[in-house]
Design goal:
Elements lengths: L1 H21 L3 E16 L4 E13 L2 E17 L2 E13 L8 E18 L2 E14 L2 E15 L9 E12 L6 E13 L4 E13 L5 E15 L15
Parallel strand pairs: 1-11
Antiparallel strand pairs: 1-2, 2-3, 3-4, 4-5, 5-6, 6-7, 7-8, 8-9, 9-10, 10-11
Length: about 240
């Protein structure tokens, strides 16, 4: 128990550190970040997923980005899982709705996730390696996300559960400067049934630039999460978009 508490404190410090970085250079305006995620669980080992996203620079206007991705997951045991996936990611000019393509990316990635609980808090540690293919070339990227879910009216996330959800994620690459991006999310969710969960909240994204400056964008994020046969996984539920 003591080791778990130390781990929780360390992750909290990391989260607070990156929040403090992001308060400078904030860009104006609240954008939206919209997610639809579907997951199908075959058994306690195998699952598959699909996710679509659309983001806007203004509040449900000037949509400048969308992505589609899917993959398969495998559970080694209750606390360990891996995912292999691919997707298409397109960025448009920021001053209109899907008007002019600026970049188009095809991406493959591999992910390793470790979960553990501290009393009612559900922790998830996610490590991801990405291979990013652009018309201009190829890049690698490395990501780490710590996610905490706290059910409010029940001990586990199940039907008719209200929960708090927060994560912090860092993005690194193998070229200088190595720090590329940080994301912080804080929100609330409600699981309506075994099939459907709704989650909304505030997301702040900090993008670091090579010249030493940085930009910050704030989003209102809404996620519609559909899960079929998740009880077959024999794992505690931790709702959240794949992202």
């Amino acid at each position: 128990m003591l080791k778990k508490l130390k781990l929780f404190k360390a992750n909290f410090f990391l989260l607070a550190f990156f929040i403090s970085i992001q308060v400078n250079g904030q860009t104006p305006g609240l954008g939206t970040w919209n997610v639809i995620n579907g997951k199908f669980t075959f058994n306690n080992k195998w699952s598959t997923f699909f996710e679509a996203q659309a983001r806007s620079q203004k509040f449900y206007y000037d949509f400048h980005y969308h992505e589609y991705k899917g993959g398969i997951g495998y559970n080694f045991r209750k606390q360990l899982s891996v995912v292999v996936a691919m997707g298409q990611y397109v960025t448009y000019s920021p001053d209109a709705n899907f008007k002019t393509v600026q970049t188009s990316e095809f991406r493959t990635w591999q992910q390793f996730t470790v979960t553990n609980d501290i009393d009612r808090v559900k922790l998830e540690h996610r490590y991801r390696v990405e291979q990013r293919f652009f018309s201009s070339g190829f890049r690698n990227r490395f990501r780490y996300r710590v996610n905490a879910i706290l059910p409010l009216n029940k001990r586990e996330v199940e039907t008719n559960t209200v929960y708090l959800n927060s994560f912090n994620e860092i993005f690194l690459n193998n070229r200088k400067p190595h720090f590329e991006r940080n994301r912080f999310f804080l929100g609330v969710g409600y699981q309506f049934s075994e099939l459907f969960t709704l989650q909304s909240g505030y997301l702040r994204q900090y993008d670091y630039r090579a010249d030493g400056a940085g930009t910050v964008k704030d989003y209102f994020q809404t996620s519609l999460l559909f899960s079929i046969n998740e009880s077959r996984s024999e794992r505690g539920r931790r709702p959240g978009s794949v992202d």
